[in-house]
Amino acid sequence: MLVSAKEMLQKAKAGHYAVGQFNINNLEWTKAILQTAQENQSPVILGVSEGAGKYMGGYDTVVGMVNGMLKNLEITVPVALHLDHGGYDACLKCIEAGFSSVMYDGSHAPIEENIANTKKLVELCAKKGISLEAEVGAIGGEEDGVVGMGECADPKECKAVADLGIDFLAAGIGNIHGKYPANWQGLNFDVLASIQELTGEMPLVLHGGTGIPADMIKKAITLGVSKINVNTECQLSFATATRKYIEEGKDQEGKGYDPRKLLAPGAAAIKETVKEKMELFGSCNKANE
Ligand SMILES: [Zn+2]
User: Fold this and answer.
1) Helix (H), strand (E), coil (C) string for the chain
2) Per-residue pLDDT tens for 8-65?
3) Do 102 and 83 touch, CB atoms closer than 8 A?
4) 245 C-alpha to center of ligand 1: Å?
5) What is the rounded (10 degree) CA torsion for 140, 144, 145, 151?
6) What percent of the chain stands above pLDDT 70?
7) Is residue 287 part of a domain?
8) How far is the CA of 260 from the centre of ligand 1 (A)?
9) By residue range, what is the domain housing residue 188?
10) How far apart are CA 23 and CA 223, in angstroms?
11) Residue 129 C-alpha to ligand 1 middle, in angstroms?
12) Is residue 286 domain-resident?
């Protein structure tokens, strides 16, 4: 059964580790991540962007697939199904479809509008036992490659949004989605420390987990980061392994063209990446604590 991410992240914050959010794109992705979580006895958050939800056929399809796998693969570790960077309407649709967690990304709206929508969702999610993530300070994307530094959130705005009753907060601290540019200046730990000081127990979320050096990840966890989003890194591992299979001509040997064979190396590569992250984040063997 899917669970809200609230309790798993409160435990992570108290236990000084972080739970990974791994974004899913299809059945192979979902299965690889769930199996890795089970094998390592780690809680896990499956992230679904609006685009990925649409790609997989819609939110109901995603919920059906994930719930089916939890049952058929006998997954017993805590699993949350989470909308990643949702608009207000997407949040409503995912709540309706059976997601156990949503992120409302109002970071591009004026802070007043962000707050007003967040308030409405706090009420709705509380009624349904669904966890809610909000974001303050936009997190840069690939197009920001030339900037070299993601945006930083205003700690006072973080405090204002945290006080609305959300369950965890994403705050920009120089992190960026996608690959990091060569001139990236690293995470801003002063800003992170100020945010944590004002928001207290609130678990903090680090987006753009791909390519942040391990020592920065560990330091961020000591400063209150309890959820780390990983997406690009699994995509890169999958693509590299699939490329190798094709380039070695394996798809042309025997029944190597069978999709179950063709996609197997990519799935194994995702499992490897997810395991590495769970070890780095410290979430292995925390499923029953
Ligand atoms: Zn993000």
Assistant:
1) CCCCCHHHHHHHHHHCCCEEEEECCCHHHHHHHHHHHHHCCCCEEEEEEHHHHHHCCCHHHHHHHHHHHHHHCCCCCCEEEEEEEECHHHHHHHHHHCCCEEEECCCCCCHHHHHHHHHHHHHHHHHHCCEEEEEECCCECHHHCCCCCCCECCHHHHHHHHCCCCCEEEECECCECCCCCCCCCCCCHHHHHHHHHHHCCCCEEECCCCCCCHHHHHHHHHCCEEEEEECHHHHHHHHHHHHHHHHCCHHHCCCCCCHHHHCHHHHHHHHHHHHHHHHHHCCCCCCCC
2) 999 999 999 999 999 999 999 999 999 999 999 999 999 999 999 999 999 999 999 9
3) yes
4) 30
5) -50
6) 96
7) no
8) 30
9) 6-281
10) 24
11) 23
12) no
Active-site residue among 84, 105, 144, 167? 84
Q: Within a 10 A sphere around the Cβ of 261, how many other Cβ atoms?
A: 15
CA separation for the pair 135, 85 (Å, rounded) = 9
User: How many Cβ atoms are within 10 Å of 285's Cβ, its own excluded?
Assistant: 11
Give CA–CA dist 219/40, Å, rounded: 23
The token pair that represents 40 in the structure block: 């390592």
- Provide the pairing of β-strand 131-136 with 44-49: unpaired
How many folded domains does the chain comprise?
Answer: 1
Q: What pTM value is reported for the model? A: 0.95
The answer to the question of residue 249 being in a domain is yes
Is residue 105 flagged as an active site residue?
A: no
Tokens of 207: 């987006």
Q: What is the mean pLDDT of residues 256-284?
A: 98
CATH number of 222's domain:
3.20.20.70
**Residue 25 falls inside a structural domain:** yes
Determine the distance separating the centroid of ligand 1 and the alpha carbon of 139, expressed in angstroms.
7
Amino acid at 217: I
